[in-house]
Amino acid sequence: MSIDIMDDVFDKALSSPGLVQDPSVLRSDYIPDRLPFREEQIRTVAEILAPILKNSKPSNLLLYGKTGTGKTAVTHRVLERLQKAATKTPKQMTFAYCNSRVAGTEYRVLSQLANAIGVEIPFTGLALSEVFARIIKHINQSQTNVIFTLDEIDFLVKHSGDDLLYEFTRSNSEIFPASLSLVGISNDLQFKDLLDPRVLSSLSEEEIVFTPYTADQLRTILNERALLAFPPGQVSQAAVNLCAALAASEHGDARRAVDLLRVAAEIAERKSAASLEEEHIRLALQHIEQDRIGEAVHSLPLHAKLLLTTIMLNQDSQSTGEIYESYRKLTETIRTESLTQRRVSALLAELDMLGLITTSIVSKGRYGRTKSIYTQVPKTRLRDLLTADPILKDLKLPY
DNA sequence: CCTCCACAGGAAGCGCAGGAGT
DNA sequence: ACTCCTGCGCTTCCTGTGGAGG
Asked: Which of A28, A90, A102, A397 is the one with CA 20 to 30 A from A156?
């Protein structure tokens, strides 16, 4: 029986022409040939980095702008072309890219960059300064002009300070006749405040600001992308417009807009729809949100899950103290060591960052200052997620 | 105007796991 | 085998603070 069902599904998948012609175009790592509305930034970045072709050191460069405004895409595109142009000169040059948030720590950022330029670095065990020294040594020995791109550099600075950047900017005096330039990409416009003035002045020899796309611009981008991904006439203009409008309302994030289009296309295909319509976009919006929440809850450490459980079991809005008290009781009933209030406070802040709970600081005068904590995720959904959790299941929680 | 509550959140440091060098 | 370094999760100790009630 079930086999027949599957055959049916697979047959359908095989026989139907499929709505999407080229799904790779809608993937988030796809960089289109044309980057509309970013010609000026491309030109500027290219001008700043071009000296590397003439064997002189390009200025360090800082790119600002919110997520999905094309910073990474522009950088990749320019570096790619630079690499092509470099084949015409005998000069050695190497580019390395690292996303600080994905890498996580200073050490991992550095080792990733090192590996990218051909220096083998173990994933742990070395002093930071040692990794650094090896990179410098390699650059000097190979006489290569190097450009390091550090994406989401604000994350690195917020979590580990600007020591690493300071080392980088200082290292230039140790490198000759080769060179090392930095391209920093930041989503946070205020992150400059966190930098040491010396680092700042060195890092931001050049600065480019990326403004969010407007709804109109997003529409153009989506239309171009849809043209590549779908056969003609398969996407309604209304769907594209809605997609653009939704993304524009969230600070003009092109990546989100394309994601939305991709998920909507998958939904439409599953429903064997003839074309992509507004309703698919709306469903996709829900789907993405649910996915995000499920994923976030699933990957939480045990005690964060326990905290979420107490928040779910309790009243609508609670203070940190109340949450901590119920959490303590919960850990007692399942005979688990409880964490300290300080740690719980940090975990609550993390849950807030993930969007699983909402907190706001309220002062009740004589009765202290605390956080008011509640969850926006529907309790039934939270209950489903938590009761299904394999780790929590074994603990026999008293729901 | 001052006090003082109930925390927020920073700083430092601890113990652990795990690789490099010796 | 031993030392030195790292990140990570955590604790301990600490200072800072908005505003109701005195």
From this structure: A28
Between residue 346 and residue 375 of chain A, the positions with Cβ below 7 Å from nucleic chain C are 346-347, 363-369
Q: Which bases along strand B come within 7 Å of a protein CB atom? A: 3-11, 17-20
> CA A282 from chain center: how many Å?
23
Indicate the residue among A180, A209, A238 that finishes a domain: A209
pLDDT (0 to 100) of residue A194: 67
The pTM for the full model equals 0.73
Domain containing A336 equals 300-393
For position A234, what pLDDT does the model report? Answer: 81
Domain for residue A361, yes or no? Answer: yes
In 3D, which of A2, A26, A12, A3 has the Cα closest to residue A222? A26
Same structural domain for residues A182 and A128? yes
Q: What is the pLDDT of residue A45?
A: 94
Residue A276 sits in the same domain as residue A355: no
Q: Are A63 and A186 in contact (CB under 8 A)?
A: yes
**Residue (of A52, A68, A85) closest to A182 by Cα position:** A52
CATH of the domain at A316: 1.10.10.10
Task: Please choose, from the candidates A93, A98, A70, the residue with its C-alpha nearest in 3D space to the C-alpha of residue A80.
Answer: A93
Q: What is the mean pLDDT of residues A191-202?
A: 75
Q: Which nucleotide is nearest to A363 (CA to C1')?
A: C18
